[in-house]
Specification:
About 50% of the residues lie in helices and about 10% in strands. It is mainly alpha-helical. The chain has a three-stranded antiparallel β-sheet with strand order 2-1-3. Helix 1 runs antiparallel to helix 3 (about 60-80), helix 2 packs across helix 3 (about 60-80) and helix 4 packs across helix 5 (about 105-115). The chain is globular. The protein starts with 20 loop residues before the first helix and ends with a helix. It binds fe (ii) ion (FE2).
Length: about 190
């Protein structure tokens, strides 16, 4: 097995009530594990057998891309949360957010709107270009800003498996709640 299921630094019930233990166990333990298993099987004896995840996401398509993208996306997703993290960006990331959206509050509103208006399954990303300029990027299905030459910093999963147990069809409520468990120190390290 080349790729392994990442192990978050928090317990399965540590993010409740924003994300319940049941959702973590299903989303991380079943959905992500499934993507990891599929990817490991798919790349055997192919050009991607010894490639790293980012390279596979940039160069593959079809089923390999879908599973590699979802492994990368969920690795970024599950490691950006913390039960007791820093809830506001600071330093140069905070300044870069203000430069584009005017304020952190306005950025949050725009980010939530992007997630609510994404039709079907996908992801909303905060991404940076090679000059450090930030943007909000909507991606369908397993998409990641890497394929557009951008670096993903923060990602909200808007697949129904991310919120349906806890919020049913109320995607907007779920996205609003996620800010309470984002650890901006983790996001700042990616910037
Ligand atoms: Fe997901």
């Amino acid at each position: 097995m080349k790729f392994e299921l990442i192990k978050p630094a928090y317990d399965a019930d540590a993010l409740a009530p924003v994300i319940s233990r049941q959702t973590i166990e299903l989303h991380h333990g079943k959905h992500l594990q499934g993507y990891v298993n599929n990817l490991n099987n798919l790349i055997q004896e192919t050009e991607f057998e010894n490639a790293d995840l980012e390279t596979i996401v940039k160069k593959s398509d079809g089923t390999v891309f879908n599973n590699a993208g979802q492994v990368l996306n969920h690795n970024l997703y599950f490691t950006q949360f913390s039960p007791d993290g820093c809830r506001q960006p600071s330093g140069k990331l905070s300044a870069a957010i203000d430069a584009v959206w005017g304020s952190f509050e306005n950025f949050q509103k725009e980010f939530e709107n992007a997630g609510v208006s994404l039709f079907g399954a996908g992801w909303v990303w905060l991404a940076e270009d090679e000059n450090g300029k930030l943007s909000i990027v909507k991606e369908a299905n397993a998409g990641n800003p890497l394929t557009k030459g951008l670096k993903p910093l923060l990602g909200f999963d808007v697949w129904e498996h991310a919120y349906y147990i806890d919020y049913q069809n109320r995607r907007a409520d779920h996205l609003k709640e996620l800010w309470k468990i984002i650890d901006w120190k983790v996001v700042e390290k990616r910037y």
